[in-house]
Design goal:
The protein has a single domain, classed as Thiol Ester Dehydrase, Chain A, CATH 3.10.129. Helices cover 15% and strands 28% of the residues. The chain is built from seven helices and twelve strands. Strand 10 and strand 11 form a beta hairpin. The N and C termini lie far apart (58 Å).
């Protein structure tokens, strides 16, 4: 080998679209609403983090082919918010021949980091980026918004879910898959055409796996105090027996796997298990750090 120089794949600049400006939860608007974002000290409602996941499948398919859609894992820490009108692009470091793990990241056009991530091909992923971050979490002291949560707490019941092409995904996601595909940064016939898909079925895009996993999240009944405004701080989507298909029935089970806090947030980390409709075969998992902004909870400073 002549050089030991890291090389990477780079996608084109893209302009992601804001689709959560009308999102509601807990009886109030979300951080994706411009007025709410400005009230909390942000310049505008940010684009939802998983939107940026769509930048990466073209690069990861280049590395690992269709196997990445079956056994791939994308594990990301969100760094800076993106608002509509800003451009972003994806980068993936070229792994050594035969390697099944690499670094990935996204930047704005001016180089501002958007997210840092690991991408890997299972079943032997090795430590993902978020597993490494979780291993460094410190014990919490005096949580207020999340004081009734415990590690190991599970959802109240199994949650049946599916995603049809024209299905409105509710107050949390006020659009359909068809709406998303009209705006997605990286379109693919695999998302819309059964005949074009290598699996004979249209597949759910990586970013929309997040929507499927969160669609029934209120049913879990986790006793989070409110109202308080939340955001996604870390997120990992892992295919185990993928991909997931449009119009297929699945069953979701949830578990709180960590609690943490920072100067500005209290967080609960939920691992969502996506099974087949019978609840027997594990198809995919999502790890999500739900962060609640302390200053959005009335009287936090006085009550903490």
């Amino acid at each position: 080998m002549s050089f030991n120089t890291p090389l990477f794949l780079c996608g084109p600049l893209r302009s992601p679209k804001q689709m959560l400006e009308h999102q509601e939860y807990g009886g109030h608007s979300s951080i994706h609403d411009d007025a709410m974002a400005e009230k909390l000290g942000f310049r505008a409602g940010p684009i939802e983090g998983p939107t940026h996941f769509s930048l990466f499948p073209p690069l990861l398919e280049k590395l690992w082919g269709k196997a990445w859609f079956e056994r791939g894992c994308f594990s990301a820490h969100y760094q800076n918010m993106v608002v509509e009108g800003e451009e972003t692009r994806a980068f993936v470091e070229l792994p050594a021949e035969g390697a099944t793990r690499t670094r990935a990241w996204a930047e704005k056009a001016d180089g501002t980091p958007v997210l840092d991530a690991s991408a890997s091909l299972g079943p032997n992923h090795g430590p993902t980026l978020l597993e490494g971050r979780m291993s460094l979490l410190r014990p919490t002291e005096g949580l207020l918004i999340l004081e009734d949560l415990r590690v190991g707490m599970t959802g109240a019941a199994d949650e049946p879910v599916r995603m049809e092409a024209n299905q409105h995904m509710g107050a949390l996601y006020p659009f359909s898959l068809k709406d998303k595909l009209a705006a997605i940064t990286e379109p693919s016939p695999w998302y819309i055409d059964d005949a074009a898909s290598p699996w004979g079925r249209a597949i759910i895009p990586l970013e929309m796996v997040s929507v499927l996993a969160e669609y029934t999240s209120r049913s879990a009944g986790f006793p989070v105090k409110g109202p308080a405004v939340g955001l996604f701080a870390d997120q990992e989507i892992r295919m185990i027996d993928g991909p997931l298909f449009v119009g297929e029935d699945y069953l979701i089970r949830r578990e709180i796997v960590a609690l943490s806090e920072s100067k500005r947030t209290e967080s609960y980390w939920v691992r969502t298990h996506i099974f087949d409709a019978a609840g027997k075969v594990l198809k995919a998992q999502m790890l999500l750090n739900h962060a609640s902004l302390k200053h959005s909870y009335a009287g936090y400073a006085e009550r903490a």
